[in-house]
Amino acid sequence: MKTDNIENRIQADGVGFHEFKRNSNVLTFHDDFAKYVKSFGDVFYWPKGNFHVVTNALLAKKALTNPLISCNRSSFFISRMPNMDLSLLSDFFGVVSKMTVMSDGDAHNKRRSIATFGLNDELIDNYSKQIPIIIKKLILDAVSDGKIDFAKDISSRLPSIILADLFSIPQEDRDKFYEWSGIMTGFFGGGTGYENSDGIKVNSAAKELKNYFENLLKARKENLGSDFFSGMLRVAAKHDLDDDELISQAIMMLVAGQVTTTDQMNNIMLQLLQSQKTFSEVKEDNNLIPNMIEELKRLDPAVTFIFRVAKDDTYIGNQKIHKGETVFISTHTINRDPSLFKNPNNIDINRKNMNHYSYGYGAHYCMGAKLARIEMNILFTILINEYPHMKLSAERVERNHYSLSFSGFNSLPIVLS
Ligand code: HEM
Q1: DSSP line for 339-398
Q2: Is the shortest distance between the CB of 302 and ligand 1 below 6 Å?
Q3: How close is the Cα of 306 to the center of ligand 1, in Å?
Q4: Is the pTM of this model over 0.85?
Q5: How many domains is the chain built from?
Q6: What residues contact residue 141 under an 8 Å CB cut-off, 6+ apart?
Q7: What is the pLDDT of residues 121-167, one digit of tens each?
Q8: Among 160, 329, 359, which residue has the most ligand 1 atoms within 8 Å of its CB, making it the best to mutate?
Q9: At 182, phi and psi to the nearest 5?
Q10: Which structural domain range is residue 216 located in?
């Protein structure tokens, strides 16, 4: 690590983060990665990725509430495709630039409040009664010789089914719908570099999704229902949002709500089956299941990095951040900040402070946290009670670190009984 004399900013170098992830041990990735990123300090510039990294919780909170640090990450995506003809990305940027998750200030507030009407508590609470039925069917359909592949059979399917249901997407359209949103999410996760072909692919997915939702919106306008779109439509005029903005919020929900929940379920399952003590505790007292979920989410968050772009020169701690520079906030490390969590690397499902940063912090705090918590609580309650002897299978657990921010699983085979 060295200090840049001119600006006195800390600069660190080592194995690239994506490379580290890809070469990590599947069972200990979360601990190893947290230690690796933290080893460079509280805040540092990372030339390999051309971004700053924050690993201290207090500094992360300051960065996430700094009005000079923007959610509009377009320039980051553009910088990763220096040879790309940007006109080929016009559909992608047209869609994402209107999303809550890419907006700041008043535009953010307006878009967020309308999206909240779409994903409202009543819709979630009414729908959640169906979740146990979906889960039990997924397990029954998948189980073979007492085994399932949790990643392939359950976690990759459940969040998609739930979102498609909440949008009232017809069954016959769902495969296409899942494919397009998967492409968008992978791109959003941030790469060290993108190929031009990635840009063309994501633009096409954005275009297809937009066309799809234009038709769906037209149908909902003629016949309002109780789905996500209808909820937004009921209040759209009052909030002065046009159709393109409504469609962008719908696509955002898909992009933000699928793989995050899938990955988080996998991360929790792997840790639970590796910790006999935790498994016994929740079997004995089911009331501890929500705590268990929060604690394992803290230790292995689905979103590895939350990132932003500075819209003017500013500071994070003593580190100067130039206008246009990108800041990556490492959730693995801020979730283990020793000033907030005692023995931060240990699993303790009775700890008092469960306020981790796995759902972000500040104005952009996750809008799907309630839904995700309900899904995971129901899923793990069913699994823990109906399969109290479940364990990792001897077959290979395979992770898929498909972007800087996301880390999924290709397979997580478990023996149910
Ligand atoms: C366990 C599952 C989930 C995790 C770990 C997660 C994580 C996050 C994180 C870290 C952020 C902050 C991003 C930032 O500040 O840039 C966020 C924002 C967001 N999440 Fe989630 N999320 C999950 C599930 C969901 C679901 C199910 C939905 C929707 C159905 C959703 C919708 C959103 C939206 C719309 C935002 C942006 C909010 C804004 O910009 O104001 N998330 N999520």
Answers
A1: TTSSSTTS--TT-S----STT--GGG--TTHHHHHHHHHHHHHHHHHH-TT-EE-SSPPE
A2: yes
A3: 10
A4: yes
A5: 1
A6: 153
A7: 999 999 999 999 999 999 999 999 999 999 999 999 999 999 999 99
A8: 359
A9: -60, -40
A10: 2-415
